[in-house]
Hints:
Layout: E1 6-9, E2 12-15, H1 30-45, E3 50-58, E4 69-77, E5 81-90, E6 93-104, E7 138-141, E8 148-149, E9 161-165, H2 178-186, H3 189-194, E10 195-196, E11 199-200, E12 202-204, E13 206-211, E14 220-230, E15 233-242, E16 245-256, H4 270-274
Antiparallel strand pairs: 1-2, 3-6, 3-13, 4-5, 5-6, 7-8, 7-9, 9-14, 10-11, 12-16, 13-16, 14-15, 15-16
Amino acid sequence: MRLGFFEETALGFEPLPFAASAWSPDMINGPAICGLLAQALEREHGRDGFVPARLTVDLFRPTRRQPVQVVTESVRDGRRIRVADAALMQDGVDVARATAVFLKKSVQPPGELWTRQDQPAPPPVEISPPTDLPRAPMWGSDAHADGWSTRIGEHQNGSRKRTWQVPMSLIEGQTPSAFVGATIIGEGTSMMTNWGSAGIGFINTDLTLALARPAVGTEIGLEADMHISAEGVAVGTAILFDRHGSFGTCVVTALSNAERQVDFSNGVDHIEAANR
């Protein structure tokens, strides 16, 4: 199978098999959509010492597994703050949109600040040695006897979830930037926070990624921080981390999609399931 979400062609960005959604093989998945918007915004507006600090993506229409185009627009280009919008289009219609905030790097202010003491950590190097090459994701849950494994079905339980991955290439043959990689992994916040003992029954409608710094290296982790839900509406937050510590957070809102519950208990991951 071709390793990447998209191929760039004269038609725009054509989805490859790994872009298939777990909810329907005829749709493009969230990581691919969010990653494409992040890449366009970073390429057009992430320069001159400005770093991406916040990305908000609204996923308000199903995106079919057909070619897509991305257009961006500058909203503000200030001395320390830069804001830009992007739209993902199919057949001339917006199917998703994003806003990115780029901030100018500067010195840290003085003083001590509180931060959470219980920080997420990557799997032990004995079972997941450092790498920059694609490999099977690691999955983790508090209820799993060994904490981590590559067998996704072992972690379908009611406890906190986490993952450790090298992000999939957004464009076949290209290594994603730290920002795009964090976006691709961060979109998994819905999975990490809405995955319970019966699988996943919520589908996210948005993503807001907030980054204090870029990821170091290509390996990125994501750990659930909180799940809140009532009457078919859910909010989930998660922490992004690398081998140097936590570097950002992500929050998603989601709607019940119980009639299409995604069940991992048979051990088949969501990409394989979407392409069966």
